[in-house]
Structures are given as C-alpha cells and as structure tokens.
Amino acid sequence: MRITHARIIVCCPGRNLVTLKLETDQGLYGIGDATLNGREQAVVAYLEEHVVPALIGRDAHNIEDIWQFLYRGAYWRRGPVTMSAIGAVDMALWDLKAKAAGMPLYQLLGGKSRDRIMVYGHATGRDIDGCLEEVERHVEAGYRAVRVQCGIPGIATTYGVAKRAGERYEPADADLPAEHVWDTAKYLNFVPKLFEAVRERFGDGLHLLHDVHHRLTPIEAARLGKLAEPYHLFWLEDCVPAENQSAFRLIRQHTTTPLAVGEVFNSIHDCRELIESQSIDYIRATLTHAGGISHVRRIAQLAELYHVRTGFHGPTDLSPVCMGAALHFDSWVPNFGIQEYMPHSEETEAVFPHAYRFEDGHFTPGEVPGHGVDIDEQLAAKFPYRRASLPVNRLEDGTLWHW
Ligand SMILES: O=C(O)C(=O)C[C@H](O)[C@H](O)CO
Ligand SMILES: [Mg+2]
Fold first, then answer.
1. Distance (Å, rounded) from C-alpha 132 to C-alpha 129?
2. What is the Cα–Cα distance from 281 to 147, expressed in whole angstroms?
3. Do residues 94 and 40 make contact, with C-beta atoms less than 8 angstroms apart?
4. Which of 122, 138, 213, 354 is catalytic?
5. Residues facing 394 on adjacent strands
6. What are the residue ranges of helices labelled H in 141-267?
7. How far is Cα 73 from Cα 306, in angstroms, rounded to an integer?
8. Quick check: CB of 149 below 6 Å from ligand 1?
9. Ligand 1 pocket, residue 171 CB under 6 Å
10. Of 370, 353, 373, nearest in space to 103 by CA
11. Model pTM above 0.80
12. What Gene3D superfamilies does this protein map onto (predicted)?
C-alpha cells in the first residue's frame, strides 16, 4: 500500500484546525490531526517542506519505520512543531492500517479494555454561582466528572473562563496575543471556596478537576494541594511549569491531592522523570503533539509501570480527528484514567463527520474501520484560516508571567 499523495488541509470552522490526508495506490486514505494552537502554519510549513515530499512512494504499512525515519532521521529531534507533524503522519498511517484490515483502530492496538470512556467536561463561570450553574448543566447532561474554573475577584480576566454563560472558552481569542493579568495571592485565597461550594451543592459523587495552567511556584502549588484535600479533587492540573521537574517532588511531599501534567509535553523524555519518580498521577500528553499513537503508546506503557494513568488533553484546539484516535487509544490502554472533552463548534462537527458518540458522561469510539473520523473537504474550504494567538499573562506590576 504505497503513499501516492499527501495533502494538508487548513480550515477555521470556529477555530483553526490542520488535517493531513494521506492517499494510497489502494484507493484508501488515512487522516491525522496536525493542529498546534496558535502555531498552525509552522506545522504546515514543516509538513509541506520536510515531511510530505519524503513520504511519497513509501509503504504505508511500515508505521514504525516511517516514525523512526521522521524522528531519528531528522537529526533535529523533538519540539512541538516536529512532533505534531510526526503525530499527524502516524495517526493517518494507523487510520490507513485499520481501514486496510477492516477493523476499528482499537482492535489493532490490542482490543478493548473497557466498554466506554469516562470524560470530563468544562464548567466555567464569571463567579462561583455562574460556575455552579454550569456544573449543574453538566450533571444533567450525564457527566460524572467536571473541571471547574471561575473568575477571581479582583482579577479582570481569568484563564479558562468563557466570556458568556453557556459558551465554551477559546484560548486563542485574538489576532495577536492579548495581555491578561494574574495575581497569585488573590487566586490562592479564593479558589478553595469554589471547590467547597461545588462539594456542598453536588456532594461527593462527582469527580472534580481543576487546571492551574502553570501559574504557581512549587511551594504555592503545595499549599493549594493541601487546601484542596478536603474536597478530594480527581486531579490538580499543571500546578507549576513543568520544565523544572524536580519541583514536583517538593509538591508531592506536601500533599495527597492527585497531580496531572503533560499537555505541553511532546516526548517520552519530557515525561520520564515525572513518571519514574512517581511525582504525578496522570499523564496528559496528546496523540497529536507527542508524536502520534506509536509514541504515546510508549509513554503510556512506561507510565503503567509506575501507577500513572492517562488523562489525555482534549480541548477544542485538537480536532475531532485527534479526539477519535484518542478514544480508540483510551478503549485499549490498560492504565486509562479519564479523557478531557470540550465540545467542538457545530461547524467543526459538520466538517469532521465522526463515528464516536457521547452518552451518559462517556464516549464510545464507534465500530467503523480506522479511527472513524473523516473530513468534508468541500465544506472545510468554506472556512479559511484566520490568524489567532494565545494570550500572554502579566503580574499586576507588568512582569511577564507563566501562561
Ligand atoms: O484543556 C486544557 O486543559 C487546557 O489547558 C487548554 C489549553 O489552554 C489549550 O489547549 C492551549 O492551546
Ligand atoms: Mg490544561
């Protein structure tokens, strides 16, 4: 099964999404997600100039060899741009192999380890009451797990909070980076009240998650972990920037709140120290950004040895193609924890017809051959690319802070 054509389709049905389509001499095609939020065109250029020309004529069945060729062979290893390009190729090749076998992708990975995939949704509000209403809406829709984020009194804008009730938030919300303001003291004094209010109203049965988005220092994160213990979070996510990985040992020594990290990781080497030192509980590396199914499988298998479970990143800035592939992976992976889910816009759902289905707080990946997600190219062409950037974050005195 030789690769004859490779095309990169960029569209913006509500937000920018990049799709790689590999066609073969057998008439089958496979698709992969290559979206790197706010850096979409960098991946497109990498694919167009360095990857696609080298793929033509290769046997699409040789997934491992193609992965090694693109990673080992490149000399310039790792990095989000390179690994997203490799991730898209790998995802498209697994889609092709499963289609050629006439099987849903999870069968090729080793079959199902579970019947359905628990996801967490996003409840956001400008204040605690607004957030509680959104939690309510999620509970009524069947969710068993909800991430809660809300506005912080005294801070004008808060990461991860939708502009209007009932809407989803969009991280890349401006042409050039908007400037947000951050104040750790105000945040730390306030956010436990949100957890308390959720537990008071919804009891202990609901899984509760929270994302700090890399904004604390290790000792501040340790304090938040301790403050959160009475509300037994499912996880506290990205409590510090993860470049300094030994920092997690310090946090770990102070708190039993489970820790999740990894949505900005792109290699097993980003995950290794955290996993081997058992400093985290959930690894969030993504199929698109961490080199595809072939590489994330290695990460998950390393994690399994150390009781670390998967909790893949699943925001709207990963396309339905990544979501579909992730749900097949989640069906198989023995050390599954949870899957993030943010509903895509109606336009995106129409551009990417898919076999996965939501019911009762869980997803099933569907039974069609491949990963079960397609692209309607004619419709995609009606939504041209628009530059969009993630914001930056400053302290009140103007110091640039972590985002
Ligand atoms: O989904 C999450 O947990 C996020 O933190 C979303 C990120 O802000 C977003 O994907 C950045 O592109
Ligand atoms: Mg996050």
1. 5
2. 17
3. no
4. 213
5. 181, 400
6. 184-202, 218-228, 247-254
7. 30
8. no
9. yes
10. 370
11. yes
12. Enolase-like C-terminal domain (3.20.20.120), Enolase-like, N-terminal domain (3.30.390.10)
Locate the domains of the chain by residue range: 3-104, 108-368
Q: Which residue in 159, 187, 282, 341 is the catalytic one?
A: 159
Give backbone dihedrals phi and psi of 104, rounded to 5 degrees, phi first. Answer: -65, 145
Residue pair 285/339 in contact (Cβ under 8 Å)? The answer is: no
Tokens of 352: 């990417």
User: Pick from 265, 297, 349: which is nearest to 105 by CA?
Assistant: 297
- What's the pLDDT score for residue 173? 82
CA of 86 to the centre of ligand 2 (A): 22
* 62 Cα: distance to centroid of ligand 2 (angstroms): 33
CB 155 within 8 A of CB 182: yes
| Span from the CA of 318 to the centroid of ligand 1 (angstroms) | 9
Q: Whose CA is nearest to atom 4 of ligand 1?
A: 315
204 CA → ligand 2 middle, Å: 23
Q: Are 325 and 318 in contact (CB under 8 A)?
A: no
Choose which residue among 234, 263, 323 to substitute to test ligand 1 binding: the one with the highest number of ligand atoms within 8 A of its C-beta.
263
Report pLDDT digits (tens) over 70-123.
999 999 999 999 999 999 999 999 999 999 999 999 999 999 999 999 999 999
Neighbours of 263 (CB within 10 A): 24
Q: Give the residue whose CA is nearest to atom 5 of ligand 1.
A: 213
Give helix 292-305 / helix 63-71 axis angle, nearest 10°: 90
Domain 108-368 in CATH 3.40.228.10? The answer is: no
Q: Regarding the domain with residue range 3-104, which homologous superfamily does it belong to in the CATH classification?
A: Enolase-like, N-terminal domain (3.30.390.10)
Q: Cα(38)–Cα(344) distance, rounded to whole angstroms?
A: 17
